[in-house]
Design brief:
Length: about 270
């Protein structure tokens, strides 16, 4: 039996039928950075995001047991689970020199009825053997995902000085193409800051791109404009975390971003909704 059929069915569950786009809310930060403000009570946060109209919610597999009610019945959001871990985004204790490791399997994702899995591709390690180890784990996960008919989202990031992801066009273009050729069904990619360079990146890959929200932006308008610009360049949706659940009103922010992604409101209208 062809497992590719399952991959296509699951992948399409992530996307809105009318707009052909998706709005994913990432709430898997706890395994990376602990109980950040906004996700201390993860069940409450997920409930607000689900009611606000997110197309999919991203967590680690063990969390599903405390939020499972949000995925019951027709019209519920899709479920994406993270399979790996890195300490690069953790400030206490300071990562020296930093690491990447696989934590969960695609089979763990299947057990919680996930619709897709997500994993990092990190470049810029102090030791090249760590990048090789990361790619080795990715290869295993891609093959396992294909066996189970599970879409795999690769999050390709270039690291600078071993800690922060950088929005450098040349580096992003490199890791995006690497991730595509490793076998990504979808990519979770940083917006470079301008439409010309990001269009070049979109055109350099054959895997659909979802834009990564990253750290909380200074203003709402900045966040909304980034969404609009990236979609104009050909991105198929967004994956936002802190910009959603660290907003003053998580449910309103979710609803506003969903409307913007699916073309129901413009940037000014979205800002007024929050």
């Amino acid at each position: 039996m062809n497992s590719g059929v399952g991959t296509e069915i699951r992948k399409n569950k992530l996307f809105n039928k009318k707009s052909g786009r998706t709005f994913v809310v990432a709430i898997d930060h706890g395994i990376l950075m602990g109980p950040l403000q906004g996700i201390e009570d993860i069940a409450d946060t997920v409930s607000k995001v689900a009611k606000g109209g997110a197309d999919a919610i991203q967590v680690v597999p063990p969390v599903v047991k405390v939020i499972k009610e949000n995925f019951f019945g027709r019209g519920s959001p899709a479920l994406i689970t993270r399979l790996d871990h890195s300490n690069y985004w953790r400030s206490i204790p300071e990562p020296k020199p930093g690491y990447y490791t696989k934590v969960f399997t695609v089979k763990d994702a299947v057990r919680v009825n996930a619709d897709a899995v997500v994993t990092y591709l990190l470049t810029g390690f102090e030791d090249d053997r760590q990048e090789a180890d990361n790619i080795h784990h990715l290869s295993e996960m891609v093959h396992e995902a294909q066996d189970y008919g599970m879409p795999i989202i690769i999050e390709p990031l270039g690291l600078e000085k071993g800690s922060q992801a950088v929005r450098n066009e040349s580096l992003i273009k490199l890791v995006v193409r690497m991730a595509s050729e490793i076998g990504a069904d979808l990519l979770k990619v940083d917006y470079t800051g301008n439409k010309k360079s990001f269009t070049t990146i979109v055109n350099s890959t054959f895997s659909p791109i979802l834009v990564r929200g990253g750290p909380k932006t200074k203003t709402l308008e900045e966040s909304f404009q980034m969404v609009k610009d990236s979609l104009d360049c050909g991105a198929k949706g967004i994956v936002f975390g802190r910009n959603v659940w660290q907003a003053k009103d998580t449910a309103k922010m979710t609803k506003a971003l969903a409307g913007l992604v699916h073309g129901e409101v413009d940037v000014k209208r979205a800002a007024k909704m929050v």
